[in-house]
């Protein structure tokens, strides 16, 4: 498989062929993960370090499980109590990591661009598990795989609504980039305070009314209200937000009858989405998103490891 990237830092660097290559390999790992014996030797002999400067139970667990199923030696670094807290710079951390000779580095960081900076300073493959408001590439890829499987293999020319807290969402940014590259029609829905002007440059349609925005869409992607990134004044109250922008049966009725409902998690039930909609096995694919997350991360690490080994082999030949 051809995937000409040393790192996975964002969707912005990928083309449609890259995306399809990664999703096709992820399909192989979906099948593997449903077997009784779920192990591959794709990363045997390699070391994976997970560095999460922000807490994220499901993303970190997904990457850890993905690495172990591929045969890697996986280490989780407790960054909340690390040397960074004692004043060490990100560059010093990179130098320390280089001395440990890791092969794959998975990083989540609260500041946009921090993962890219680390990638420039370490001698291994780096995967972005979310950096500030910038990107969350593996979330967009697992969302794409979920959509493709739910829509009979189709990931083009769909009407897709992304709803809620667009302003603070790296998930929204990565999905807008990926779904746009795959020729889909994207609608952003939310209150004006959570719909920043720069997103209009991506060629999306913008709505501040849920019913208008959801009319005849194939996919409804709800976003978490990221209160930890807000400094007040974005919404009048959670109750009012749910009344206007929370997904319930009445609003969902404006979408196509076979429209699927998505959410990256964790969900705030009764704020972004009605609990019955979230649990509706005929409409919700939220649990499928979690399953696809492991497979997509396995595929991403497999492809990057192949490139890493190839580069090291070439370097050895040249030396």
TrEMBL record:
Q: Does the keyword Transport apply?
A: no
High-level lineage: Bacteria, Pseudomonadati, Pseudomonadota, Alphaproteobacteria, Rhodobacterales
- Gene Ontology molecular functions: amino acid binding; aspartate carbamoyltransferase activity
Q: Which family does it belong to?
A: Belongs to the aspartate/ornithine carbamoyltransferase superfamily. ATCase family.
Q: How does it assemble?
A: Heterododecamer (2C3:3R2) of six catalytic PyrB chains organized as two trimers (C3), and six regulatory PyrI chains organized as three dimers (R2).
PANTHER family for the chain: ASPARTATE CARBAMOYLTRANSFERASE (PTHR45753:SF6), ORNITHINE CARBAMOYLTRANSFERASE, MITOCHONDRIAL (PTHR45753)
* Protein name stated in the entry: Aspartate carbamoyltransferase
- Do you know which NCBIfam families this protein is assigned to? asp_carb_tr, PRK00856.1
GO aspect biological process, one term: 'de novo' UMP biosynthetic process
Residue ranges annotated for the Aspartate/ornithine carbamoyltransferase Asp/Orn-binding domain, each copy included: 158-303
Q: Reaction catalysed?
A: carbamoyl phosphate + L-aspartate = N-carbamoyl-L-aspartate + phosphate + H(+)
Its job: Reversibly catalyzes the transfer of the carbamoyl group from carbamoyl phosphate (CP) to the N(epsilon) atom of ornithine (ORN) to produce L-citrulline.
PROSITE patterns cross-referenced by the UniProt entry: CARBAMOYLTRANSFERASE (PS00097)
Q: Where does L-aspartate bind?
A: 86, 170, 224
Per UniProt, residues of the Aspartate/ornithine carbamoyltransferase carbamoyl-P binding domain are 7-148
Where along this sequence does the record place binding of carbamoyl phosphate?
58-59, 108, 136, 139, 265-266
Q: Which SUPFAM superfamilies match?
A: Aspartate/ornithine carbamoyltransferase
Task: Please tell me which top-level EC class this enzyme sits in.
Answer: transferase
Keywords for the protein's UniProt record, in alphabetical order = Pyrimidine biosynthesis, Transferase
What is the native source organism of this protein? Donghicola eburneus
The record's annotation in Pfam families points to: OTCace (PF00185), OTCace_N (PF02729)
- Give a GO cellular-component term: cytosol
């Amino acid at each position: 498989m051809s995937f000409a990237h040393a790192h996975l830092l964002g969707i912005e660097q990928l083309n449609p062929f890259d995306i399809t290559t990664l999703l096709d390999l992820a399909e192989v790992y979906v099948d593997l993960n449903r077997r009784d014996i779920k192990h591959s030797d794709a990363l045997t002999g390699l070391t994976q370090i997970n560095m999460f400067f922000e807490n994220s139970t499901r993303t970190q667990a997904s990457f850890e499980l993905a690495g172990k199923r591929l045969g890697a030696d996986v280490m989780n670094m407790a960054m909340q109590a690390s040397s960074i807290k004692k004043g060490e710079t990100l560059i010093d951390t990179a130098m320390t990591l280089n001395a440990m000779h890791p092969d794959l580095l998975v990083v989540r960081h609260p500041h946009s661009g921090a993962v890219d900076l680390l990638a420039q300073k370490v001698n291994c493959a780096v995967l972005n598990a979310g950096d500030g408001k910038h990107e969350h590439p593996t979330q967009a890829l697992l969302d794409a795989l979920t959509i493709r499987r739910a829509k009979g293999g189709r990931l083009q020319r769909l009407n897709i609504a992304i709803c809620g807290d667009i302003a603070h969402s790296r998930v929204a940014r990565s999905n807008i980039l990926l779904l746009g590259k795959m020729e889909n029609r994207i609608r952003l829905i939310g209150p004006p305070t959570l719909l920043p002007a720069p997103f209009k440059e991506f060629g999306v349609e913008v709505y501040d009314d849920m019913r208008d925005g959801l009319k005849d869409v194939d996919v409804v992607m709800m976003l978490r209200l990221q209160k930890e990134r807000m400094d007040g004044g974005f919404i009048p109250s959670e109750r009012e937000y749910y009344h206007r922008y929370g997904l319930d049966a009445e609003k969902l009725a404006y979408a196509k009858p076979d429209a699927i409902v998505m959410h990256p998690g964790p969900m705030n039930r009764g704020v972004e989405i009605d609990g019955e909609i979230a649990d509706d096995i005929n409409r919700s694919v939220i649990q499928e998103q979690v399953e696809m997350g492991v497979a997509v991360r396995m595929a991403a690490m497999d492809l990057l490891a192949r490139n890493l080994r190839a580069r090291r082999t070439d370097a050895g030949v040249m030396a």
